[in-house]
Design brief:
DNA polymerase, domain 1, hpI Integrase, Chain A, 3 strands
Amino acid sequence: MPEPEKSQEPNSRFSQLKEGFLNFLLDVRTLSHNTARAYGCDLDAFGSWAERHGIDPLGATHRDLRGFLGELSRAGYAPRTINRRLSAVRSFYRWLEREGFAREVTIDAVLGPKIPRSLPTTLSDEDVTRLMESCGDDAVGIRDATLIELLYATGARLFELSRLTVLSIDFDEGQVKLFGKGSRERIVPLYPQVLARVRDYMEDARIQLVSHARGGDTGALFVSTRGNAMGTGALRDAFKRRAKESGIDPDVTPHSLRHSYATELLAGGADLRSVQELLGHASLSTTQIYTHLSIDRLKKAARQAHPRAG
C-alpha cells in the first residue's frame, strides 16, 4: 500500500507560491524584471523572518506582520523600505486569496510608518542649458544633449527613453510614443526645437555611432560608441558625466528633469489632470506634489518682487 503523500514544508510551499506570484507580475501585470526581482527580495526577507520566528509565511496574522515591521524598524531600515516590504507582502497575500491559496486576507489593516514627503529636486531652464552646453559637438556629445533635451521636453522616466526606437518619434505629428510602467502607452507632444535636435542627431551623430555596430543597426534611438542599444544604466552614466562636467547641483538626476517638466507645466497654467496624463501617473495624488513646488516658486517670486517683502 503506497504511503500517503507528505505535505510540503511551509517554506518550500512559500517558495513555490512566491514564484507563481512573480510570474503573475511579469506575465499578467507586465511589470519589469527589475520590479519583479524587487518584490522577490522583499518576500524573501519576509520568509526568512517568518522562519526564524517559527511562523508560517503563508498564514501570517495581523500581529505577526506588525512584529515583522517592528524588527525592520529596530534594525534601522528607512520608512520607505519598510513600507515597500509591507506592500510586497500585502500584494502577495491578495494574490494568494484570489488564486484560492488563502481563505482571507487579514493583514490589510496593518499600517506602515509615515514617510515625510520631501519636495523633489528641480532644475532651472538655465541649468538645463548648461547641461546641454557641456556635451560638446562630437557624436557622443550630440547624443547626450539629445537625451537631456528629450528628458526635459517629455518628463519621461529614463527607462522609457531607453526603450525608444527611431520609429518612436513622429516628426509629422510632433510627438513621441512612450511606454511606461506596466507597458502603459502614452503620447507626449514635442516642441519644434527638440524635434530639430532629434532629427539632427538621427541624421548624423547616430549614423556615426551605429557604423561601429558588429550586428547591424538595432533600431534603438540611443546607441553607444559601439553602436549597441543603451540601457537605463548606460544612459544614467552618460547623464551623470554631463552633470559633473557642467558644475550644476551634484544631487541632480535624470528624474530631476521629470520634476522640472511637471513644475514648468503647472507654472505655465496646465491643469493637474493633463500633467498626470503626460507624466503617466496612475494616481492623481502622485502628481499633486508638484503643486507644492509651484506654490513655493510663487512665494519666492512674491518675496523678490513685492516692494514690502524685504
